[in-house]
Each structure stands twice: as C-alpha cells, then as structure tokens.
C-alpha cells in the first residue's frame, strides 16, 4: 500500500487498543481497484498500491466511501462513491467495475458464504487492510452525529451511487415553465424582482434527473406562494415563517436536521453539486425568519452549532467575506435574527467560531435596526 498516513496512528496505539478496535470495528473489503486510484473514506484519502484490499477498524456509524480514477497524465476523474451506515463488526464487500470505474456491490451465488470465509480469515488479511483514520473521527462525528441508518436509507439515491452531478434528461420546450407575462411584470418592477428572487427556479430549464440517480431530498416550500397578493409577497420576503412552518410540519425538525447533515457530507466527500445546492437553499430559507427562531428555538440552537463545523469546510470561493458571497450574507442575517429572537449564547458561539476559523467579522450587525439589541440571557 502507498501513502497511508494511519500507519503512524497505529504506532501510537497500545496493542490492546488496536486489538479491540480490530475485533469490534467494521471492515470494508474491496477487490480489483487499480493501483494509483485515489481511494477515500470520509475525509481521509490516499493512492492505493498493489496490495491494498480495504479498510479495517471502521467505527460504527455513517461513512462515505469513494474512488477516483487517475489518468495516464495525472488527471483525476470525478469522485464516485456510496454512503453506508456501518454496524459494529460488519463486513462489507465491494468490487471494482472497470467499465464504470466505480465500486459496486459484490454479486454472486454465495455472498454470505464469502463474508463468512472473510471473517474466519481476517487475521491473515490484516496486513492488506488500512486502519481507519481515528485522528479525524472527532471532526467527522461533529459533521454527522445525527445521521442514522434510516437517514441514509431515506435520502440515498435508488442506484446507491453518489456522483458529483446527476444525469439529466431534457424535456420538450413546450413543457418548460414560462414565468410571468410581460404585462404582469411591467405592473411592478419591484415585485417582479422579489418574485424572481424567491421563485428563481421558474427561470431555469425544466430538466429532469435520470430515475434513481438523484438523492431523495425534501422538496422545499417556496418562500412565496405563486398566487400571493402584492402585500403578502412583501411579508413573505421579510420573514419566511410560513414556508418554514410547512418545512417543519408534523414535527419534522429532527428529520430536517439529519437531512442538512447528510446533504452536506454528500457535497464534502462526494463533491455532489445537487447536495450543496440543497444545503444552500435550506440555509437561505432558515436564515430569513426571526419568527421561526422564536418558534423553533431548540432546532436553531443545534443548527447554529452544526454551522460551526460545516462552514469551514466550504470551498474557498464561499469563504470570502464579501457582499457577493451570499453564504456569508445569509449567515449574517441568521445571526441578526438569532440575537433578536433571544438565542444569544448560540449566536455568540457561532460568531466567535467563524471569527477564528474563517476570519469573518460581523460589524454593524444591528445598524439596520439600531433599537434591536441582543438579549443577554437565553429565553427557554
């Protein structure tokens, strides 16, 4: 094997600790991956060598596994992977698909028998298995701590494969939405700008994904209903409580929080564009309501904590503190609404964290509403 940094980790472990992790941890066996292929599990990756056969000592929980082929001139293909909730002591077997250049489930007549033989022979396989990178486990748990096996099953694509983009099918031109008529737009340029902001997908081609290839994400309610009156449009633009109530209906706050974490790791590890877009839309919606923070205090406290770990993992382009960086602008709005809604401790913690990790500053946060000062004590 080549470039496996966890060798130093194993050297620092006591024999008893290493044995316990080996006996209780899950194992991923892979076959046929060409040498030089980039292999990754969670946020740890390396180039595989001739003798690489998988990963051992995988802690129980959700993990993202991927490969990326290397071309003859050093070019790297997009990552292709899968998410699995590994159980204690579980053995998962995958094999390389040369045609698609990705890992696929092992399929033959005696899968269970093969797993049994692998389990009996694990000690002999030990030297071919890379130890899981426990140095990064605490960070990974902060990003995924609420994701359950049910979360993975609920949101994973039917095909089981995570790609950086999903396959799209175009539709006939006559099926594409046309948006507002020129006459209605001319009636109020201000309202039309608000409509285009809140229902921006109406302006995009109506492209459909190839069935089974896309993650199953919740359809987010529009911030402004299409049939809203001009007065209601302004109200929905000022505060998204109505849309957030729809998002959280039937007590779905916990499920939405799990979905936020799940969509983020699909982007972080799999570079999934659709997942980042979904995560981004949720941030935009949740940031735009002081009333929702007052109503769903517990959720928002957890959400602000989650953002402390997620935001520093974003691409460099989304880390700049500029007026054009809408992630920064949404977080700024979220902080303002959080202070005004009374969850001061969580807001202060996020602000302090981002000041240290991203060097973000939020000066003059209350300049638009100078009389609205943050409360000193959390309101339960």
TrEMBL record:
The organism's place on the tree of life at top rank: Eukaryota
UniProt domain AAR2 C-terminal: residue ranges: 217-363
Biological process, per Gene Ontology: spliceosomal tri-snRNP complex assembly
InterPro entries hit by this protein: AAR2, AAR2_C, AAR2_C_sf, Aar2_N, AAR2_N_sf
Annotated ranges, domain AAR2 N-terminal: 24-157
PANTHER family reported in the protein's UniProt record: A1 CISTRON SPLICING FACTOR AAR2-RELATED, PROTEIN AAR2 HOMOLOG
Family named by the database record: Belongs to the AAR2 family.
Protein name: Protein AAR2 homolog
The organism's taxonomic lineage, starting at the top: Eukaryota, Metazoa, Ecdysozoa, Arthropoda, Hexapoda
């Amino acid at each position: 094997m080549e470039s496996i940094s966890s060798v130093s980790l194993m050297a620092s472990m006591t024999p008893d600790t290493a044995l316990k992790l080996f006996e209780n941890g899950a194992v991923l066996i892979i076959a046929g991956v060409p040498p030089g292929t980039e292999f990754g599990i969670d946020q740890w990756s390396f180039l595989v060598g001739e003798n690489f056969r998988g990963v051992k000592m995988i802690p129980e929980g959700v993990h993202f596994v991927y490969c990326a082929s290397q071309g003859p001139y050093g070019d790297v293909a997009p990552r292709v992977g899968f998410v699995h909730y590994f159980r204690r002591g579980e053995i998962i077997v995958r094999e390389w698909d040369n045609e698609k250049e990705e890992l696929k489930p092992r399929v033959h007549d005696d899968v269970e028998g093969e797993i049994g033989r692998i389990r009996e022979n694990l000690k002999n396989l030990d030297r071919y298995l890379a130890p899981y990178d426990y140095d990064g486990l605490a960070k990974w748990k902060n990003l995924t701590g609420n994701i359950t096996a049910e979360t993975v099953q609920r949101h994973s694509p039917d095909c089981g494969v995570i790609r950086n983009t999903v396959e799209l099918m175009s539709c006939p031109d006559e099926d594409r939405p046309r948006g507002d008529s020129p006459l209605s737009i001319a009636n109020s340029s201000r309202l039309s700008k608000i409509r285009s902001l809140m229902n921006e997908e109406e302006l995009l081609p109506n492209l459909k994904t190839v069935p089974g290839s896309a993650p199953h994400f919740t359809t987010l309610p529009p911030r402004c209903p299409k049939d809203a009156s001009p007065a209601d449009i302004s109200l929905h633009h000022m505060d998204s409580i109505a849309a957030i109530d729809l998002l959280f209906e039937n007590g779905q706050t916990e499920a939405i929080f799990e979905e936020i974490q799940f969509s983020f790791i699909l982007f972080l590890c799999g570079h999934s564009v659709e997942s980042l877009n979904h995560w981004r839309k949720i941030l935009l919606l949740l940031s735009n309501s002081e009333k929702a923070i007052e109503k769903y205090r517990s959720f928002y406290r957890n959400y602000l904590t989650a953002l402390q770990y997620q935001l520093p993992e974003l691409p460099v382009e989304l880390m700049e503190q500029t007026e054009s960086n809408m992630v920064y602008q949404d977080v700024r709005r979220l902080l303002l609404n959080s202070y005004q809604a009374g969850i001061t401790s969580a807001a202060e913690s996020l602000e302090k964290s981002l000041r240290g990790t991203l060097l973000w500053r939020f000066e003059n946060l209350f300049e638009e509403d100078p009389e609205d000062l943050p409360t000193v004590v959390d309101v339960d």
